[in-house]
Amino acid sequence: MALTTALNAASVYGAMSRLANRAQSVQTQAGGSGESGGLDFGNMLRDQVKSVVAQGNASEAKQAGLMAGKADLVDVVTAVSETEVALDTMVSVRDRVISAYEEIMRMPI
Q: Rounded to the nearest 5 degrees, what angle is found at the Cα of 59, between the Cα atoms of 95 and 2?
């Protein structure tokens, strides 16, 4: 069970990392940052995805340290829990963005 969860988590982290890299390459091809004096939602989203991926990688490193006998169990459990909360939050934000997009698409012009 724990191995399956770790493999699923690694797959999700990899997918989120590829998503962040793809968004960055699309933005670069579009010709710049697209900022007009305000906050750029794409940059903010990319930063958050990178943060979740980095948190996942740190959690995996602590898990490997535990397997090698170099980490404390409490630290590992805390890191895994924090990563799970961050990933759940990211999924919730994604669901809300999709819902908002679908609502906008239903609006009459």
A: 85
Two tokens at 26? 């699309």
Q: What is the pLDDT of residues 65-88, one digit of tens each?
A: 999 999 899 999 999 999 999 999
Query: What are 14's two structure tokens?
Result: 């990899």
Residue 107 per-residue DSSP state: S
Please give the Cα distance from 31 to 8 (Å, whole number). 35
Predicted TM-score (pTM) of the model is 0.59
CB 25 within 8 A of CB 51: no
Domain ranges of the chain: 2-106
Q: Which helix (H) or strand (E) holds 21?
A: helix 2-30
What is the reported pLDDT for 1?
A: 45
